[in-house]
Amino acid sequence: MPSDEEDQVSSADQQKINQFSRLNGRLHEIGEELDIQRKAVDELNDLGDELILLDDDEPIKYNFGECYLEVTKDRAEKLIENLLETKNAALSVTQDELAQCKSTLQDLKNQLYARFGTNINLEE
C-alpha cells in the first residue's frame, strides 16, 4: 500500500506540472505558427514561379505596405527572393523552438511519470 508521502504532491512537483501545461500550450501555438509560416513560404514560391511566365518588359505591381509600386520583373524577383530568405529564416527559428519545446516536454513527462506512475495522465 502506498504511503502518504507518495500521494502528496510537492511544490516542486506542482511546478513541473504547471511548466508541462504551459509548454504543452506553447507547443500547440508553435504548431499553428509553423503552419502559417509554411503556407507563406509556399505562396512565395508559387509567386516566384508565376513571375517566370511574365514578359520581361511588363511592369509588375508590388505590394509594399498599403500601396503598390511598379517595379521591373528583375526587381520583383529580387524582392521576392529576399522576402523568401527572411521567411525561411523565421521558419527555421520556429522549427528550432518547436524541437526545444518537445525535448523539454519529454524530459518533464519522464520525470513526472517516474514520480507518479499511472496516477498522472500527460497524454493529449
Structural notes for this entry:
- The protein is mainly α.
- It contains three helices and two strands, in the order ααββα.
- The chain has a two-stranded antiparallel sheet.
- The protein starts with a helix and ends in an 8-residue tail after the last helix.
The major beta sheet can be summarized as: 2 strands, antiparallel
Q: How would you describe the shape?
A: rod-shaped
Number of helices: 3
Cα separation of the termini:
29 Å
Structural class: mainly alpha
Rounded to an integer, what's the Rg over CA atoms?
24 Å
Provide a brief overview of the structure.
The protein is mainly alpha-helical and 124 residues long. It is 73% helix and 8% strand. Helix 2 runs antiparallel to helix 3.
Key terms for this structure?
124 residues, mainly alpha
Walk me through the topology.
Layout: H1 4-7, H2 11-52, E1 60-64, E2 67-71, H3 73-116
Antiparallel strand pairs: 1-2
Helix pairs in contact: 2-3
